[in-house]
Amino acid sequence: MNTLNAQGRTGQTGEAISDSLVKSAKNLLGGDNKDAIDQSVGVHGPLDAAFGPVLALVDKNRTGAQELSLQSYLTRVTQVRLRLQQVTNAADPQAMTQTIAQTVFQGKAVDLTETRDYGSLIAAGLGQEWSGFVVRCL
Q: Are residues 10 and 51 in the same domain?
């Protein structure tokens, strides 16, 4: 993912000092002719169309409870791994497995199913172009 992140950001350019000065001058001279949404904010690159979904997933600068992230997914996977490790090391692994299965069948929230669902949301968010990659990685 780090390699995709680096390759996807190839050629990206941010706002230069000259762009900032021009924007300030326009604001001073233009007065009320401001755009409702500043569409020039952020970095832009030639590979944004192809790598945009992956870059959004691994972007560390994004904040918000509703946004999907690779870090959140990896945290959930770690929780599932630890849960399965507890089952393996339990005195009666079969009984613990049955308890987990019962909670899943009863529809109660279990980290196993939540992680699977979160992975499905990530796959759907990345789109058709990345579906093969997602199946292999997630």
A: yes
**What pLDDT, on a 0 to 100 scale, did the predictor assign at position 84?**
92
Is the Cβ–Cβ distance between 5 and 54 less than 8 Å?
Answer: yes
CA distances to 15, 40, 59, 109 from 11, rounded to whole Å, are 13, 16, 17, 43
Strands (E), the chain: none
Q: What domain range is 8 assigned to?
A: 1-66
Assigned token pair, 28: 């001073």
Q: Which position has the higher pLDDT, 48 or 98? A: 98
CA distance 29 to 54: 40
Q: Are 58 and 76 within one domain?
A: no
